[in-house]
Amino acid sequence: MMTTPNTQVLHEAANQRESARLLQLRLTGFVGRQAEQTAIRGLIDQTRPSGGYVLVTGEAGAGKSSLLAQLIVNAGLDQTPQHFIALTPGRAYQLDVLRSIVAQLLLKHDLASNYFPADSYPALRLEFGQLLQTLSARGISETIYLDGLDQLQPEVDGTRDLSFLPLQLPPGIVIVLGSRPNETIDSLALEHGVVYQVPPLHEQDAIGRWQQVQPTLEPALLHGLAQAVKGNALLIELAANVLRHTSTSEMLALLDHASADATNLFRLSLGRIEQAAPRHWQPLIRPLLAVLLITQEPLEPAVLAAIIERPTATVVEALTLMSDWVSVAADQRVALRHLLFHDFLIQHEFTQPELQVWHGRMTQWCGAALDQIWHDSTESVEQARRWYARQHYITHLDCAEQWEALWQVIDAGDYGEHKVRFEPSTRLYGLDLDRARESVIAAGQSIEQQLELLPRLWRYSLLRTSLTAHADQWHDDVFVILAMLGRVSEALAQIEICSDQVRQVLLWSRVVAYTEPELRLHIFQRMEQVARSLHESEERDYALHLVAMAYADHGLLNMAYPIAISLGNTRDETLAYLVDVVIKQHDLARVKLIIGQIQTPKYRIKSSMLLANALIEETEFIEARQLLIETLPFAQNEQVVEIKSLLATIAWRLGDHQQADILLAEARSMHKYFADDAKIAALLAIIKGYLAQGNLAQAYNLHDEIKLNRFRRELVDIYINRDDIAIAVELAATITHWHSSDLAYAALVAWYCKEADFSKAEQALGLIKAPDQQIKSYCLLANSHADRFQWMRLLESAQLSLSSVISSISLAKCWLQLADAYAFQHAHDRAQSMFEHALTAILATSNSFLNDQMYDLLQLAHFAKRYNYDDLCQRVIYTTFLVGKHEDFEYSLPFEHAMLHLNHGEIDQVRQIIDTSVGPYVAVNLLQILIAESIKQQDHPQAQLYLFEALNHARKLENPSYRVSLLGELADIALASGFELLAKTILGEATQLLPVITAENEQRWAGVGLVRRYYSHGMLASAATITQVMTVSQTHDHIMVEISLCYADSGQLAQAYATLKVINTQTEVYARNLCQIIIKAHEHGLATLAAEYYDELIEAWSVIADPIRLLKDLKDLAIAQINYGSNQYLPSLLEAIRTIRHPALAEYQYVEVLCEIARAYIKQANYPDFADWLAYAHSIAQSIVIESRPKVAAYHYVAITYLCHATDSDTEIFLADMLRLANGIAPSSYANDLFNALANSCASYAVRGHPDFFAKAYQFAMAISVPWQRAQALRSVANGYAKVDDRVMVEMIIAEISRLSPNYLSLDAVALIYAQRGDLAFAQTLIANDEASEERDAVLDYLIPALLQTDAVVAAYQISHGFTRLTKRIKFLHQIVNYYVERGQIAESIQIIQAAWRNCGAAADLWELRTIVLPFDSTHPWLGTAVLDSVPWVEQQLARLN
Fold first, then answer.
1. pLDDT band at residue 3, thresholds of 50, 70 and 90?
2. Backbone torsions φ then ψ of 200, nearest 5 degrees
3. pLDDT per position as a tens digit, 415-463
4. Can you tell me whether residue 147 is helix, strand or coil?
5. Is pLDDT at 680 greater than 90 in this prediction?
6. Could you write out the DSSP letters of every residue in 531-551?
7. What is the C-alpha to C-alpha distance for residues 1182 and 1176, in angstroms, rounded to an integer?
8. Which of 53, 572, 1395, 1402 is in Cβ range 3.0-4.6 Å of 600 for a Cys bridge?
9. Which residue, 1198, 1154, 1153, is CA-closest to 1173?
10. How far is CA 468 from CA 391, 1277, 1426, in A?
């Protein structure tokens, strides 16, 4: 509940005692640093205009905190919001930070009445972001200081939650951060601010500090000590404390000792403690130091006392003596003061065996009554022990090297089962398993031990990667259904354990709407935290895009906008989404500001059009016109027409009818140049323009130009929206395709229902053909009726239509619509019955339509919740769990065992597995392998026996599609083995199974597969039997077409033609396939025979409406004649191509075809005809009037052809013309496209031996206004320089690309060139920071074998991790492991296997990676079996955990 805090509450929150204490502590002994303060203030001033972060960083002891403390004092302690993070912060310390900072800001700026949710981290986090936006909007500048971010406790995955810091600070706001180097913190500053590295303190500053405590010391005496501490602020202060307590007589000796090695200062400091309490040193103080060193989190004195078995009062007294070395937090928990103290104790005070002993003591303390730690205790120290043991017992077992005990705990499974109950997300138990994996790797002291432990490592790795498998397998909609039906906590718990973090963010964004407000804020915080922690830039960008949209959807624009403008690739898409949201809120002024930030033309235009329409609705015509005029330079093709049509509407509304007519005339003159959809979209915009003027006649005249049914349906919608229902009805009657027609009449039904004209609605409904659409309209009509008799009658009519619904997918949707209609009318008994029918239909749907099933279940869940059908809710949940699971990777343990036996030649064991342990599918697979082995050994009788046995197993398969597939494979084997009669018999059996396959698409593809097999076996004549068993006409015709094409492939043209003639198919389909037959005839050198079919083809072409299809057929036939031999029809084909014109045929498509003809001629070494066709293509490109992307595309096709095949003289003439296009061009998306094409073309021509064109290429690339497009063009230029081996220019351009796109260089093409040139090191450097991609894989495919050939096996291994596809990585890991095994370097092989298994994150991947032990099969044949023997244990553990 929102409360208004009073000033006292704010003062209490603002005054954090621990933060104030730390600030004063950091000021103690502060000296110098004037230059550093000036530098940081300069960075603050530099960052302020845009807003951002200044990260002050440095290694431990560099003096960061003292420097920030002094800056705060100089700026005014009371007027500078600041917080110094405690040395031992708790797990929720971010709330303390925010509470303090927000309270300080509210008090400083007199905003005490603002909302202050003091105890809610998610709510306070949002308030902080909005408060900063408010200050910025008021023109207020503010600097906030936060020190010690690296001291925040990390999450279980090692990252720190910095989501309380906004990604993008608004103008005027600067946050100065103090932290040791940390990847998460550094990335925040690097992407959204600047970094300042604190330099060492100057020697005179150090000496000045020491003279403060010992004024009589001469600087010369302190010079050696100053050199030793190397400007480290912490060492300087430690030296000051030592000097303060040193007598004059001991001073010189101490200085000599400390100057020799600065670490002696620690020893001297400890010596002072020992001298102060000599009796307590060994029995108390030293044990305390050891415990503080090895414990995994700060502990209270009473707990420390229990660990070392000393009285609490004695421990407290000792801690007072140790004040220079320990820090006591506000919650009384104790930790070592500084990381440097931690390092000194490890390196100089305690030996590794000593620390192992202490870890052993911790295992005893944690492990006492281990079964009791999962129950809470009322005694505080015992409760602290139990809590600590739950989290850190395994860690101490590992560090104590008590590995056998650790493995025993893991193997027993009780600890893991309890831990998963304690922390259901399994993240903590996953970390324990990581420790266990590390311990297995560390335990092997010899090569034999390491080999023996590999199965254990694989076992723990398989369990670790399987922990989250069930949540990973759930369909996304499962989580939503659970949340929708009230099981929010369960949905959230399962999202937490998903292994894909991007998917986690997506799922949170989908379920957040079903949560309570306070929990919703927590989910937003988790979404942003996870998204910001992602390492890959594209994944992080997309995840933050989802976060921003979720904020916007829930009214948190102040949180969404800073994220949106900080994004990379998804920035403009996200901003466009925000525009849509804000327009719905009618905040048009804010919309303009957001649109001003959008750079990508596509999204700029979309958003501007939305805003323009909104402004027109508000009668803000002048503003709308100005916006559209500013948008025009970004527009292309139909977008230009849409804008001009909208401008015409504005002109008409402003009374300038003449200008409106001119604009629409311009739009009409343009649209004819567009292709297909673009042209019709433009026409629809023009029609809307005329209708806006009331010019129905002009709009009506354009109707005939819209031929396609789906667009005529859109035209119907336009008139319905204008209430011109008579014209809408007239247009609906002209739609010839049933689907578009049904949608049009359904829209009419909806309009009539809205107008309560029920008789007309029923008339329109009667014209709907599809039963599912009929039912939908019946339900709408019924719900519009108030009369009970009428709605009952209509719904009963709808129910009668169900008998015509065949598909279970459609049936489920129909039942849902009917049930909703009955429920709407309060007929709940009927409704629930129909919902049950829907549920049954959903279950009956094939799993191959999982998305449809889940969509229907989502709808059903919505209805069940809306109507409070509790029992139905439970049934939906049950069905959701039953249906909503993606197939997991499948493994067959018996199959893998059999493969190992095969590798060892143990055929009898394989036969035993086939007979006793596997199902039919696996049995057939194994028998296929045995058949291949028998054939290899020339044992054909045995192969035949195996084949018959495989047939018997295949016949046991229940799924007919699988059975047909397996029978086909067995037929292939039979034929390859010489058993032709058996192969034919098997194919006949498979053919008879086709009618049993009920799914039409599965039946069709099974039939096509069999046709191909008959063809490959030389039995094509027998394929006709397939058509005899087909009952569905469409499937029959599809098979016949396939048979016809197979005949054509084999050169049997007459048979191909005869088969095609008997097919009852559309003329267009017939012409397409006849064209293929003729092309095949040319390929077989049968140009004369092909001529017999040309007249029929030309006649078929005359009725083809699609000019693009016709042009493709003409082109394919012409090229076939040019390539394989011509007949008398070639001149007429070429003439038809030259003269074809059609409004729907875009010039750039036409140019592409002309270039293909030209390339066919050059392939035949016919340069004159090549040059003629290419010149004609160039002339068409020149004729394109509109400056748009199609014009650039046309020139691009021509340019590629000239550059690849033409002479220099012809190419230069063309390039001169292309370069002229850039003269005087204004910035626009067209200009960017043109500059990109010019950069590519000039770079390509430069590579051909014209280096002066490189400068032009670079110039055009740099002229591109959109940064990512500029980087793309520069890559092409760099690629050109790489081809001519100009390393200097390559590196210069790479530097420019890096500035434009620091996280995505994408230099794979350049890397491949240098790899092929032999410069492997440079190639590795170029791909080092690129994200995984198919292009990068191509480079790695070349690099790794090249490195192995040069014995650079370490380098090959290091880059093998970069593949996108696991199969490729495994292939090369096999080679690398084998390389080492062959050379007897077994230790190196084992290390690679250990690393691959240890670092694997998915169970399916780990199962594949198991095979990298195969190179050991010849020397250690037991290893593969031992690995597989681990699987039952893993399955048992998973059963317990789940």
1. very low
2. -60, 155
3. 999 988 887 767 788 889 999 999 999 998 899 999 999 999 999 999 9
4. strand
5. no
6. HHH--SHHHHHHHHHHHHHHH
7. 10
8. 572
9. 1154
10. 19, 46, 25
Pair of tokens at residue 60: 């431990």
Q: pLDDT tens digits for 1383-1411?
A: 999 999 999 999 999 988 888 888 889 98
How far is residue 1271 from each of residues 1210, 1267, 1298, 1442, measured CA to CA in Å? 30, 6, 8, 49
DSSP 704-715: GG--SHHHHHHH
3-state SS assignment for residue 599:
coil
Beta strand pairing call for 52-57 and 173-179: parallel
Q: Which amino acid, residue 1228?
A: S
Helices (H) and strands (E) in the chain, counts: 80, 7
The rounded distance, in Å, linking the Cα atoms of 1312 and 578 is: 41
Q: Which residue reads 């009805």 in tokens? A: 729
Q: Which two structure tokens, joined as six digits, stand for 737?
A: 């395709």
Q: Number of C-alpha atoms within 13 angstroms, CB side, residue 136?
A: 21
Look up residue 47 and give its two tokens.
């960052």
- By residue count, the chain amounts to 1442
Q: What DSSP state is assigned to residue 423?
A: S
* DSSP-based helix, strand, coil % in the chain, nearest 5: 75, 0, 25
What pLDDT digit, counting tens, does each position of 13-56 carry?
888 877 887 788 777 666 667 888 999 999 999 999 989 899 99
Element (H, E) at 1124: helix 1107-1124
Measure the CA–CA gap between 469 and 1132, rounded to whole angstroms: 63
848 versus 403: the higher-pLDDT residue is 403
Q: At 1226, which helix (H) or strand (E)? A: none
**pLDDT > 90? residue 198:** no
Q: What is the side-by-side order of every strand in the sheet holding 52-57?
A: 82-84, 142-147, 173-179, 52-57, 193-197
- The token duo for 1275 is 């890559």
Determine contact, residues 956/986, Cβ cutoff 8 Å.
no
pTM here? Answer: 0.74
The DSSP string of 931-960 is HHHHHHTT-HHHHHHHHHHHHHHHTT-S-H
Cα torsion for 1354, 1355, 1361, 1366, to the nearest 10°? Answer: -80
Phi/psi of residue 1048, nearest 5 degrees: -65, -40
pLDDT band at 1 (very low <50, low <70, confident <90, very high): very low
Q: How many CA atoms lie within 13 A of 44 on its CB side?
A: 21
Sequence-distant contacts of 1065-1073: CB under 8 A, at least 24 apart: 1065/1037, 1065/1041, 1067/1100, 1067/1103, 1067/1104, 1068/1103, 1068/1104, 1068/1105, 1068/1106, 1068/1109, 1069/1041, 1070/1100, 1071/1097, 1071/1100, 1071/1101, 1071/1104, 1071/1113, 1072/1109, 1072/1113, 1073/1041, 1073/1044, 1073/1045
Structure-block tokens of residue 556: 């948190």
